[in-house]
């Protein structure tokens, strides 16, 4: 690696000569601008506004534009002569717990290397002191024409420095949070906790840039003249109102299945059945009423059967039975008389009236 800055770490009265290296690199794929009509490359040329001539990088300097438009040239020598202790020094101002550093302040990352053999001893001393204290060092340094804030911490056996934004460079959160009042139920929090526990931890080294790999495949296929089949769209229901409980339960189930856990062993939560409001009204109307009426009728019949016992027939029922028997006997006698008349051709003999009945008549 090539160092981008040489200076020293100021640790009280101890000065540690160091070199600064970029700790990160970008693997993103860059594109060029072309003329769509003929594929010609589009370039930006640096041209002086006064003589309209293109200039090289060696001919370009810095200047500060005043309010009235006046350009005030500033050279690298002017910046190097500034009366700042941080011009060539990373000045440690405090040691604080890492939790006091807001991650929003994190910027570029650098590795600090001891510059020369004499710097190895104080470099190692600072590294081990940071390890044992479990703290980070807050420092100020100047780089690329401006003073910056930094945080020093230990990564493996190397001191790393993270550039930090100044506190007044962090925007407030006004207007970002949801404006409406939202209540989260305990059941939803429990499912969220279950999902977090199921996903568990991840080995950061296994994570990679899927988009970059897809772009590389696209470029390779176009270069070879092969047609690349478009991928199926992965619709996760963005912008749709969903059942949060059902979504969390499905997420827990999918996460456990992805880890190869069996439903019984994993204790998979049952999937919530979502029923539309119209379906609930329909099923809760006619069907429910019919079922309730049928149940009430059956219950009434059973109660009536229990109340009516043998040997305790009501009086009305006994009277009706006696009348039925008398009517049956009379019908039988009439039928027999008609049969005898048709057989002899004569009327049946009149009944004899007793003397007592005649006298009374």
Count of distinct strands: 9
> Spans with pLDDT under 50 lasting ≥5 residues?
264-298, 302-320, 339-361
- Shape descriptor reads extended
- Determine the mean pLDDT: 76
Quaternary structure of the protein: single chain
End-to-end C-alpha gap: 152 Å
Main sheet, how many strands, which sense, barrel? 7 strands, mixed, barrel
Beta-strand percent range? 15-25%
Helix percent band = 25-40%
Helix and strand string, N-terminal first? Answer: EEEEHEEHEEEHHHHHHH
* Rg: 50 Å
Alpha-beta classification:
alpha+beta
| Spatial sequence of strands, sheet with the most strands | 1-2-6-9-8-7-5
Count of helical regions? 9
Short account of what is shown:
The protein is an alpha+beta fold. It is built from nine helices and nine strands.
Task: Report on the architecture of this protein.
This protein is of the alpha+beta class and 361 residues long. It has nine helices and nine strands. The strands form two sheets. The chain has a seven-stranded mixed β-barrel. A hairpin with a 2-residue loop joins β7 and β8. The longest helix has 31 residues. The radius of gyration is 50 Å and the shape is extended. The protein starts with a strand and ends with a helix.
């Amino acid at each position: 690696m090539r160092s981008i800055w040489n200076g020293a770490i100021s640790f009280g009265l101890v000065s540690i000569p160091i070199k600064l290296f970029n700790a990160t690199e970008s693997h993103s794929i860059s594109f060029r601008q072309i003329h769509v009509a003929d594929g010609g490359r589009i370039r930006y040329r640096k041209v002086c506004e006064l003589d309209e001539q293109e200039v090289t990088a060696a001919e370009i300097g810095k200047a500060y534009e005043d309010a009235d438009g006046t350009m005030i040239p500033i050279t690298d020598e002017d910046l190097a002569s500034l009366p700042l202790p941080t011009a060539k020094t990373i000045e440690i101002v405090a040691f604080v717990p890492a939790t006091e550093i807001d991650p929003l302040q994190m910027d570029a990352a650098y590795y600090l290397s001891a510059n020369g053999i004499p710097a190895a001893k104080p470099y190692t001393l600072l590294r081990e002191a940071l390890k044992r204290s479990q703290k980070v060092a807050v420092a100020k340094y100047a780089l690329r024409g401006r003073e910056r804030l930094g945080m020093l911490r230990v990564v493996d056996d190397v001191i790393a420095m993270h550039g930090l934004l100044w506190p007044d460079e962090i925007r407030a959160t006004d207007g970002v949070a949801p404006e409406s009042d939202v209540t989260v139920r305990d059941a939803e929090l429990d499912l969220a906790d279950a999902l977090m526990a199921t996903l568990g931890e991840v080995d950061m080294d296994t994570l990679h840039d899927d988009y970059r790999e897809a772009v590389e495949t696209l470029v390779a296929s176009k270069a070879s003249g092969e047609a690349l089949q478009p991928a199926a769209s992965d619709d996760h229901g963005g912008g749709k109102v969903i059942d949060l409980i059902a979504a969390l339960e499905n997420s827990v189930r999918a996460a456990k299945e992805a880890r190869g856990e069996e439903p019984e062993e994993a204790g998979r939560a049952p999937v919530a059945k979502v029923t539309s409001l119209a379906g609930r009204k329909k099923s809760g109307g006619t069907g429910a009423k019919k079922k309730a009426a049928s149940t009430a009728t059956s219950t009434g019949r059973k109660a009536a059967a229990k109340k009516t016992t043998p040997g305790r027939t009501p009086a009305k029922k006994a009277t009706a039975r006696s009348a039925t028997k008398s009517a049956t006997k009379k019908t039988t006698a009439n039928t027999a008389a008609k049969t005898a008349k048709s057989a002899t051709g004569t009327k049946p003999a009149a009944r004899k009236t007793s003397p007592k009945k005649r006298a009374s008549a």
